[in-house]
């Protein structure tokens, strides 16, 4: 008897002429309900069947063919969902050829298997034509002989215009896909997707990116690092990793590279863990440009590192992870061992969905899954399609979480290595002989502390969004989030309620909580929120002439190494972002990328563009990017000094605003008479701390009055809060002063010169 082995979780399709004996093969195989998806059965379910008496007296039962499209769409959906769950699936249909244009064929299912990362096999039931016709004649659901002949030879499509006639379909006794040619007396058996040979294996629990600790554990197990970087055991032992190679630890990508090289050399095998599966999901979501949120910071951290790799390496890693089986098995004459990632309350080679051995069953410690598994091991056979007693002593070896209880035949090899725990390994041969077998390596890595420090700033800004004190703009292509304080923070004077508000001015984070672009924190105007009132007139300061444009920000792109991240303080995609890009020519872009390859900085520019006119007039020769700030992309980094900015501008070819040293008192006098926007004020300490903005009264007065009319004056006094929504934040304090010290009638009675004098006096 011919036996066809198909790995658990894989997809197989039966191929053969009607009457070839496919149903007979399946009956002999005694497969459990659900594993076989039959096109004939679905036709009967959807369309019923017609029964009639043939000319030879046979009673014929025919399923309705008009529902064929619905049948195939249903099979496709069921197969897709079953493969997602790692459930073995066999499609029972004719599928006589690899490719039949416009039809469901072998290639269509092969593609589904490839996308799911599971093995695929075509089982071709090849029966002589004479026997096919004889068996068909004895069937109740007899297929017309003419139809069988068309399946065999194909259908001739007539010539149309210049297109010649051609044959569509036709029975293929071979395939370009993995296949076996069998008779109808063969049987199908579901086997483990990974079968370990021999007992000379060391089983390693969850690594979670702790590559340094893994190397130390391998040394403790007797593995030696060879000149090619691989670790080999003098006794030829091999390694089986129980999944969760990634996340939480500091070297997830390096761990993947290490394990992949060991596997390629035949020194190791891996079963998939839930964190490995989440990394595949992260990659797929990013490639669909839907990466606006991710539930796990640690998984997103690995995912962002993966996206930054060269595309071909990222694809290789994901292909490797997709191909991982969700369990492995070892057995000898008296013992059978299943190796899977997570705790489970039961296991069956054929029935158990992949998620049950990826995500666990303890329900966060509320259920003793190990005790439940021990009861199952004692009662039912892992490998039987039916619930029958075990024929061998069975064991379940896993990782994922520490043991939920001590059991004789259930072992956990996870001890929270990522959280000051231990990385664990087991010598399989010693375990099966009842010897001491678990080898621990204590660790000192504190994941909770590391992650809390890394994402604290991001969470602070996200809290502002929750409280509606800030808004967030997203770039779903790369999982980026830009935070901007709400206008209500200004006119309701909420700055003192949360220090994170000062950072909500265009700071950009990725979905892992990493800062990726770091423009200026909020700098207040003089006297705003009490700013500058403590500065004595004799205080030495550096004054920087303020240009009257808008703030543009450029940082190295966090994913695309050959690209720039360009944004404003509120958007990734506005017209103003386009204005910035207008000035980033090829040579400018090249200089920026060269700088960023050596030094990851956020560059800040005052952007003067002809499409964005302001109060202060500029000539065409003034248009462009004027470098006004820069700092390293890390939390708490100081701004570069003006001297450092001068050097950087010279290197990159950008213009700079004028700056000079003076005292604060002298600057106040100078600013009162200036006709440009004003000055930025920095202390002359070591870091040249930025302390405030000084807006020129001429500029402020001109800007405010240029926007006012009788109707707007009435709006200002009738509803100051609503009026503030329509003006720049620099005028909020002016609105407060006007509405508390003046009346609308008195303002409207003044002529334009009197209004000009009043506003200038108030802004001073």
What would you note in describing this structure?
With 764 residues, the chain is of the alpha/beta class. It has four domains: 189 residues, P-loop containing nucleotide triphosphate hydrolases (Rossmann fold, 3-Layer(aba) Sandwich), CATH 3.40.50.300; 245 residues, 4-Layer Sandwich (Purple Acid Phosphatase, chain A, domain 2); 235 residues, DNA ligase/mRNA capping enzyme (D-amino Acid Aminotransferase, Chain A, domain 1); 65 residues, no CATH class. It is 35% helix and 22% strand. The protein has 26 helices and 35 strands. Helix 3 packs parallel to helix 4. The longest helix has 20 residues. The protein is elongated, with a radius of gyration of 36 Å. The mean pLDDT is 92.
Features:
about 775 residues, Rossmann fold, Purple Acid Phosphatase, chain A, domain 2, D-amino Acid Aminotransferase, Chain A, domain 1, 4 domains, six-stranded mixed sheet, five-stranded parallel sheet, about 35% helix
């Amino acid at each position: 008897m011919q036996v066809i082995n198909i790995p658990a979780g894989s997809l197989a399709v039966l191929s053969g002429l009607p009457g070839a004996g496919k149903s007979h093969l399946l009956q002999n195989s005694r497969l459990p309900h659900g594993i076989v998806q039959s096109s004939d059965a679905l036709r009967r379910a959807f369309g019923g069947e017609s029964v009639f008496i043939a000319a030879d007296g046979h009673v014929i039962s025919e399923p309705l063919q008009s529902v064929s499209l619905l049948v195939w769409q249903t099979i496709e959906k069921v197969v897709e969902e079953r493969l997602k769950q790692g459930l073995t699936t066999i499609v029972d249909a004719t599928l006589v050829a690899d490719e039949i244009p416009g039809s469901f064929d072998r290639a269509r299912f092969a593609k589904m298997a490839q996308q799911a990362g599971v093995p695929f096999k075509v089982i071709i039931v090849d029966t002589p034509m004479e026997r096919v016709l004889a068996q068909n004649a004895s069937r109740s659901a007899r297929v017309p002989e003419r139809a069988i002949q068309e399946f065999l030879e194909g259908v001739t499509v007539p010539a149309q215009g210049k297109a010649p006639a051609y044959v569509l379909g036709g029975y293929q006794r071979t395939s370009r896909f993995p296949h076996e040619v069998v008779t109808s007396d063969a049987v199908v058996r579901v086997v483990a997707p990974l079968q370990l040979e021999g007992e000379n294996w060391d089983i390693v629990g969850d690594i979670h990116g702790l590559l340094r600790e893994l190397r130390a554990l391998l040394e403790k197990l007797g593995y030696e690092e060879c000149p090619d970087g691989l670790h080999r055991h003098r006794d030829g032992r091999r390694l089986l990793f129980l999944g969760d190679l990634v996340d939480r630890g500091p070297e997830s990508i390096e761990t993947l590279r290490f394990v992949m090289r060991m596997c390629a050399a035949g020194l190791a095998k891996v079963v998939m863990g839930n964190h490995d599966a989440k990394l595949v999901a992260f990659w797929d979501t990013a490639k669909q440009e839907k990466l606006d949120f991710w539930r796990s910071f640690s998984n997103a951290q690995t995912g962002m590192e993966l996206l930054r790799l060269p595309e071909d390496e990222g694809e290789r890693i994901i292909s490797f992870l997709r191909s991982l089986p969700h369990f492995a098995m070892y057995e000898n004459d008296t013992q059978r061992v299943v190796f899977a990632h997570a705790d489970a309350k039961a296991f069956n080679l054929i029935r158990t969905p992949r998620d049950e051995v990826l995500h666990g069953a303890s329900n966060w410690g509320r259920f003793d899954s190990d005790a439940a598994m021990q009861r199952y091991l004692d009662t039912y056979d892992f490998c039987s399609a039916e619930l029958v007693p075990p024929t061998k002593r069975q064991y379940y070896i896993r990782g994922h979480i520490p043991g939920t209880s001590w059991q004789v035949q259930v072992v956990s090899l996870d001890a929270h290595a990522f959280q000051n725990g231990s990385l664990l390994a087991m010598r399989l041969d010693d375990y099966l002989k009842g010897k001491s077998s678990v080898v621990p390596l204590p660790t000192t890595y504190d994941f909770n502390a590391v992650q809390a420090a890394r994402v604290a700033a991001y969470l602070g800004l996200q809290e502002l969004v929750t409280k509606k004190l800030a808004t967030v703009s997203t770039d779903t292509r790369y999982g980026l989030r830009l935070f901007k304080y709400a206008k209500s923070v200004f006119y309701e004077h909420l700055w003192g309620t949360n220090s994170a508000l000062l950072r909500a001015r265009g700071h950009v984070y990725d979905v892992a909580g990493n800062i990726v672009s770091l423009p200026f924190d909020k700098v207040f105007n003089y006297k705003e929120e009490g700013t500058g009132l403590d500065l004595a007139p004799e205080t030495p300061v550096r004054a920087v002439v303020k240009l009257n444009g808008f703030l543009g920000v450029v940082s190295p792109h966090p994913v695309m190494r050959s690209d720039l991240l360009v944004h404003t303080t509120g958007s990734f995609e506005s017209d103003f972002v386009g204005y910035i890009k207008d000035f980033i020519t090829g040579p400018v872009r090249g200089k920026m990328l060269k700088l960023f390859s050596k030094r990851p900085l956020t560059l800040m520019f005052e952007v003067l563009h002809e499409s964005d006119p302001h109060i202060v007039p500029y000539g065409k020769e003034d248009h462009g990017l004027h470098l006004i700030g820069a700092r390293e992309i890390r939390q708490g980094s100081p701004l570069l000094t003006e001297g450092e900015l001068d050097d950087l501008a010279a290197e990159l070819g950008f213009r700079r605003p004028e700056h000079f040293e003076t005292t604060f008192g002298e600057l106040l006098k100078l600013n009162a008479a200036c006709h440009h926007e004003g000055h930025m004020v920095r202390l002359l300490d070591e870091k040249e701390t930025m302390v405030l903005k000084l807006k020129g009264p001429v500029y402020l007065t001109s800007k405010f009055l240029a926007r006012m009319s009788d109707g707007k004056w009435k709006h200002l006094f009738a509803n100051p809060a609503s009026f503030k929504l329509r003006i720049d934040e620099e005028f909020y304090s002016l609105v407060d002063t006007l509405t508390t010290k003046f009346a609308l009638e008195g303002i409207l009675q003044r002529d334009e010169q009197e209004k000009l004098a009043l506003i200038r006096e108030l802004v001073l």
